[in-house]
Amino acid sequence: MRTDNGESTSVWMATADTPREGRLAEDLDADVCVVGAGIAGMTTAYLLAREGKRVAVLDDGAIAGGETCRTTAHLVTALDDRYFELEKLFGERGAHLAAESHAAAIEKVEEIVGAEKIDCDFSRLDGYLFVPPGEATKVLDDELAAAHRCGLTEIEEVERVPDLSFDTGRALRFPRQAQFHILKYIDGLARALKRDGGRVFMETHAEKIEGVDDDAARVETSGGKVVTSRAVVVATNSPVNDLFEIHTKQAPYRTYVIGARVARGSVPKILLWDTPDPYHYIRIQEGSNGKSGYDVLVVGGEDHKTGQADDAERRFGILEKWTRDRFPMVEGIEFRWSGQVMEPVDSLAFIGRNPLDKKSVYIATGDSGNGMTHGTIAGILITDLIAGRENEWAAVYDPSRKTLSALPDFAKENLNVAAQYTDLATPGDVESVDEIKPGEGAILRAPATARATTARTGTSSTVPPSAV
Ligand SMILES: Cc1cc2nc3c(=O)[nH]c(=O)nc-3n(C[C@H](O)[C@H](O)[C@H](O)COP(=O)(O)OP(=O)(O)OC[C@H]3O[C@@H](n4cnc5c(N)ncnc54)[C@H](O)[C@@H]3O)c2cc1C
Q1: Which residue, judged by its Cα, is nearest atom 32 of ligand 1?
Q2: Annotation: CATH topology of 6-71+183-249+347-410
């Protein structure tokens, strides 16, 4: 069983094991080297191995030990950023492709679960988006119309979310969303990957990731061993190989989750989101922490830009109050954890060839709170790109895309990030990695000549390029 800091133990960590693997002990040659064993890296590795590629996965922690084990594991087409906004940024066709790709990702997970017989509590269910009472509901009208234009024609309006202990008022129903137990799913992927000849190495830090030419790459690990390959996929959540291009197009946000004990069946098995900023989201995980007759009501929200707030206790408190006000059947809080999502300036992930690099280097980043589907899309899309197949999603996820209409927000986001960079002129939060408590992140001041370092102890914290 995985152990972790009590404050940062997710319901998944408490209820499943993930496979243990050894570290890389010798130089290796592979067709594709995947750096990062979260959902993006493991899905990519699995799909490539299904196609007969020799795949090596490196992770400097445990399999799924990054943000993936801290997710709430909704699989949705009800994206965090609205379709009417995506239409403005990507046009009707681009927003349509986004909707199609997330729906296809849910189907791909369902297909893999079936084909590999992965017992991971996967189920299809309805998701609902509601506006808190007293607030304008135009957002629902706009989203319904845009979602229909994007091909999600089964989404409909309901007078209130059914069977809940509080009146949500008008809401949108998104049918055929899904949820699963992420660590059981990743365990299944890892087993299938190894069956297909894939190799996974834990505690193996990729120190230097290099496109040697357009069909050769090289990864040097901190233990001195080297993986040579035809292509490398950097699936480290925040790309550790790219020190500028992508980091100026996205910003890290911290998000908080509690898991509350409720009597089995007392909260309907649905997904639910409200619309304030920051918003709240819920799901039910059947079964509890060793107690029979209970479920865990998982509630998340209270996001803030990483490094710009230091009030986790207050945010957990607000989440608990929000939950108890609406779900009086809560009998106790069993879990509290937090993690980080990367918010791209124009809402969609960056998946594909690394900008300004050799064609052998691919990245997957910018999960935007929809990393379960974005990570699966990364697997599908990067596998197609490596196999030389056309994929019409490529342009909307292209890490080199220029989404001009996003520029005002882009400037704002970067001013904000720039403000964080000035903080880095200070000595940093800590002097050494040893000072970072399990489950927390901090800015580690690197010497001027050092390579950018991502200091992670359970959750990640990005060190922007100007830190070095
Ligand atoms: C609280 C919370 C709730 C969320 N809820 C949802 C949800 O309901 N639905 C949804 O779709 N998404 C959700 N997300 C987002 C989703 O969980 C993430 O986007 C997703 O798990 C990220 O997966 P990943 O593979 O990109 O990254 P990670 O899981 O972080 O994997 C990256 C891996 O790279 C490794 N690594 C990093 N640097 C190196 C290096 N130099 N060498 C070797 N290895 C390295 C790390 O150890 C890590 O294991 C949520 C996120 C959080 C934090």
Answers
A1: 236
A2: FAD/NAD(P)-binding domain (3.50.50)
Residue in the structure block whose two tokens are 């109050």: 321
**Structure token digits, residue 113:** 């679960």
Quote the DSSP letter at residue 452. P
**pTM of the predicted structure, to 2 decimals:** 0.88
Ligand 1 atom, smallest distance to 342 CA: 19
CB of 11 sitting under 6 A from ligand 1? no
Could you give the CA distance from residue 69 to residue 46 in angstroms, rounded to a whole number?
18
- Residue 90 and residue 406 in contact, taking contact as beta carbons nearer than 8 Å: no
**pLDDT, tens only, 226-284:** 999 999 999 999 988 876 677 788 888 999 999 999 999 999 999 999 999 889 999 99
From CA 97, how far away is CA 443, in angstroms rounded? 37
Rounded distance, CA 301 to CA 315, Å?
9
Alpha helices in 263-332 (DSSP H): 312-326
Task: Specify whether domain 124-178+251-343 bears CATH 2.60.40.420.
Answer: no
Measured from the Cα of 364, ligand 1's closest atom is 26
